[in-house]
Amino acid sequence: MRAPLSWVSEYVDLPEIPVEALAERLTLAGLEVERIETLDAEGVIVATVAAVEPHPRAEQLSVCQVETGGGTCTVVCGAENVMVGTLVPVALPGARVPGVPGGKVSAATIRGVKSEGMILSRQELGLEGKSSGIWNLPPDLTVGTDLASLIGFPDTVLSIKITSNRPDLLGVVGIAREISALYRTAFREPEISFPETAPAAATLTAVEIEDPADCPRYVARIIQGAGNLPSPLLMEARLLKAGMRPLSLVVDATNYVLLELGHPLHAFDIGKLEEGRIVVRRARSGERIRTLDGVDRDLSREVLVIADARQPVAVAGVMGGADAEVGPETRAALLEAATFSPVRVRRSARAVGVRTEASLRFERDLSPEMADLASRRCCALLSCHGVRIARGAVDAYPIPGKTRVVTLRKGRVTEILGVEAAESDVVDALSRLGLTLRDRGKTWEAGIPPFRRDLGREIDLVEEVARLYGYDRIPALAPRTEPRIGEKDSRETFTDRVREILASLGLLDTYTPGLVPAAGAEVRLRNPLAQGWDGLRASLLPGLLATVRGNLEAQAPGVAVFEVGRVFRQQKDEVEEEDRVGIALAGRPPIPLSGKGEYSPADLKGLLDAFLDALRIEDVALGETEDTRLHPYRRAGIYCDTLPGTRNASPITLHPSQHLIGWLGELAPGLVADLPGARRVLALELALPPLRDAAHGPEHRPIPRSPASKRDLSLVVPEDTVEGSVREAILAEPLVESAFLYDLYQGAGLPAGHLSLTYEVAFREPERTLASEEVDAAVGRILARLDRIGGRIR
């Protein structure tokens, strides 16, 4: 926010202190002054162009005769917009102008013609970054008048960084109110009275709001006779100092109020509105609008528009449309003063791809009560320059607001700030900020002014007192608190355990963004922070693959990483969040078992075995999966279930189950085609909640005092038999401690359609040595179970 102090001083008596001290005090109060700029010029007068002739030796230059009120002088000018009869700022020799090399104007001979001064542009006066021509002044000025006094020179402009919760400070009046409160100087409200001499507004227009949640209030006033009127010089100068370019009286007046009160306005040529009416609604499918910047924009249901009876004429709170633009031919205009939902304006601005000074303010939640004040102020300004104002206004305010009240306990300010604050000082401070306080005994009821939307809690009022008192005057004391040891919940404890296990297995922990492009997401953000990051990930794989790619591009010989993170899935009308763990392997292991071999599926499966073993999870099985992200012949689903008789089972068995909790395998060639070299990537992903439910804590068992008895069992089973069912039959025997499959054979010597599985089976009784007969009996019971699934001893 650029705040010219000459403008601020219209509403407050500025303290007689150096501007640097004022800037420091404002900064300490929360209005961070980022830059102090001084504007000044001396010896510049208002002159009229009496004659313009081409330069005899330069096609792009003109020789002008300029009447200064004290005579006529010759000035060589290169601007294309210099015309006879216009008033212009002229700097005679000796004048001091900031935008002139050396800062001082002198007579000079230009291509053989003596120039006795300069016709100035706004840029040379320091009012504009780049000008396309000279400054044509309003025609009502007196020739020979000192220009500096007319445009408020010398002046100081403060560039202030305003926090998002203080839209009231995005106006000169708000800054003046702050200075008044800080320095106890008089504050003056802007003039809002004006005569109403045109027919009643209600007979000329009508307003309809489809959804008050999108537009809480819409005030429409009708103004007549402003189409071709010039803006007063002081208005133009103030707009330029604040960073806006003057256009016409009506447009300039709306921008003036925006910079003055912080509330945007807009004007429509009412003759260009179908049926002269206004409808505030959402855009419809297929609608388009050409905005004031000349760009055709597609609209969607996300966009709130101002429409007439036929089509959109503005993007509400963002930018007006060219079809209803006010121009020199405008005979009557509809002045819009409204408030819109900050969320809706933000989405509309993003949808059409443009942000403006208006949207910046509406996005910060403006008060509906300020809309009528801004409308009245604009009419007061216009009425001073020959514009006629219609009687009354069409005020669509479906749900009028109520004065907000916040309770403040007496003594709370002292308690929070640690500084003794008398009750009278608290009342005085808050009153200076525009609050009204009622004494209720042990508390105050503070009525919040409409422009302070940020005040809603007791602590907000304490902060306001602190701001006026001065943060630098509050002693920096450490709070007195009892130290407490935080406790992690079961979820955090389990994810920490997962990370520790995987790190101990030699994997590196990685963190990747949870935001992804919308094309790869089930859940899309309505209000993304950045373009291209407008979805929430449904899998950890994209982030892990990006990590693998980055490491391989950096010529890492191998990558072995894991991530524990959250994914998001759309489940009907709700978003489901789930913690997951993912692993990715690529390239060469740090210590390969043979030669320069790359990671193999056995390495990935071995990591899964070790991981589940460390968690003491026994109810996990591998089964089929149709996941197209994986190689069609090197993939498996990971299932979790409680299978009877699997207490001592290996962590991985080939037994299909109902609860798919993850997948593992080699990534499909299409996903890794752009990786450096001929690489393959192995990966897995597991849901953590079912693992947390199935995991067991460490269990201490005494070392068996008796030896194990081991038998090798070679079994013949039909080739379509699931290995898990064979293992289940073996481990169902109470005396079996473990079963290790070490050979699989299919060929000569076996019946057609059968295969041989050979297990090393360990039998043990913890307290005594098993007799050979007991082991034989146990083997018999195992064979009886196997017989039910078509198995027999080989």
Tertiary shape: elongated
How far apart lie the N and C ends?
A: 89 Å
Beta-strand residue fraction? 25-35%
Strand order of the largest sheet: 26-30-31-35-34-33-32
As for the number of domains, it is 6
CATH topology of the largest domain: BirA Bifunctional Protein, domain 2
Low-confidence stretches: 642-657
Number of strands: 39
Label the CATH architecture of the largest domain. 2-Layer Sandwich
CATH class of the largest domain: Alpha Beta
* CATH 4th-level superfamily of the largest domain: Bira Bifunctional Protein, Domain 2
Number of helices: 19
Main sheet record: 7 strands, mixed
Structural class: alpha+beta
Give a verbal description of the structure.
The protein has 794 residues and is an alpha+beta fold. The termini are far apart. Strand 30 (558-571) and strand 31 form a beta hairpin. The strands form ten sheets. A seven-stranded mixed sheet has the order 26-30-31-35-34-33-32. Strands 5-4-3-6-9 form a five-stranded antiparallel sheet, with no helix packed on it. Helix content is 24%, strand content 29%. The protein folds into six domains: 2-39 and 157-183, Phenylalanyl-tRNA Synthetase, Chain B, domain 1; 42-153, Beta Barrel (OB fold (Dihydrolipoamide Acetyltransferase, E2P)); 201-396, 3-Layer(bba) Sandwich (Phenylalanyl-tRNA Synthetase, Chain B, domain 3), CATH 3.50.40.10; 404-473, 2-Layer Sandwich (Phenylalanyl-tRNA Synthetase, Chain B, domain 1), CATH 3.30.56.10; 490-694, BirA Bifunctional Protein, domain 2 (2-Layer Sandwich), CATH 3.30.930.10; 709-793, Alpha-Beta Plaits (2-Layer Sandwich), CATH 3.30.70. The protein is built from 19 helices and 39 strands.
